[in-house]
Write a structure and sequence with these properties.
The protein has a single domain, classed as SGNH hydrolase (Rossmann fold, 3-Layer(aba) Sandwich). 43% of the residues lie in helices and 11% in strands. The chain is built from eight helices and five strands; from the N terminus they run βααβαβααβαβαα. The chain has a five-stranded parallel beta sheet with strand order 2-1-3-4-5, sandwiched between helices. The chain is globular.
Length: 221
């Protein structure tokens, strides 16, 4: 479904009040959320907040505590406390690639994902305001295979993404599926950062084009 930018203009959420207020946004994740390999302001959360503001949504990226290399366990221990302090209205969650790289089994990943979502939803003013984002296929990048340990990266990430999508269905949450777009990095060096592994600024901008309309749909509800 195509959602036109102009159609995204809404009044920010505030329960029990007709007055608009600034939507507080927290981005949780790892290198893909903090923007490893690109300049400050070029990661998708920054682009998303800027785009939403341009289209009339009064939103601020209150925190992006993501760190390169962090797993779901790291997020629970280090990013959840930031979430608790900020008390945001809206959250994006892109996590799991480092779990797979470090050999975390799917059941443990699923358990940790559930813990994160349970905690986030229990404290959000509207528990539906969580946007899940699928894990990129880093196996198509020039240096991706260094982290495979002989495993099929695409299959492994797909398995984790299926867990994310299934949990989203159970909880009636929206998903922005960037995985297919990330597979195009294989034949496009300009979509890959200088480290040969992470996305370039151009690729992050392509992710934001996928994430933006889903966010619009979510925030309009």
């Amino acid at each position: 479904m195509v959602i036109l930018a102009a159609a995204c203009t809404i009044t920010a959420m505030k329960e029990g009040s007709s007055n608009a207020h600034k939507v507080k946004y927290v981005a949780l994740g790892d290198s893909y959320t903090i923007g490893e390999g690109v300049k400050h302001g070029e990661a998708f959360p920054d682009l998303l907040a800027k785009h939403l503001n341009l289209e009339g949504i009064d939103i601020v990226l209150s925190a992006n505590p993501s760190v390169t290399g962090w797993t779901t366990k790291d997020l629970i221990e280090n990013e959840i406390p930031v979430f608790d302090q900020i008390k945001p209205d809206f959250v994006t969650l892109l996590i799991g690639v480092n779990d797979w790289v470090q050999g975390v089994d799917s059941s443990t990943f699923h358990k940790n994902l559930n813990y994160i979502l349970d905690h986030i939803q229990s404290l959000l003013p509207d528990k539906s305001k969580v946007l899940l984002i699928t894990i990129p296929d880093f196996g198509v990048t020039p240096t991706g295979n260094r982290y495979s340990e002989g495993r099929d990266i695409s299959k492994g990430i797909t398995d984790f993404n299926n867990i994310i999508k299934a949990e989203a269905r159970v909880r009636n949450l929206l998903v922005a599926d960037i995985f297919p777009e990330t597979q195009k990095m294989k034949d496009s060096p300009d979509l890959i950062a200088h480290d040969g592994l992470h996305p370039s600024a151009k690729e992050y901008a392509l992710w934001e084009k996928i994430i933006y309309p889903v966010t619009c749909k979510l925030l309009k509800n």
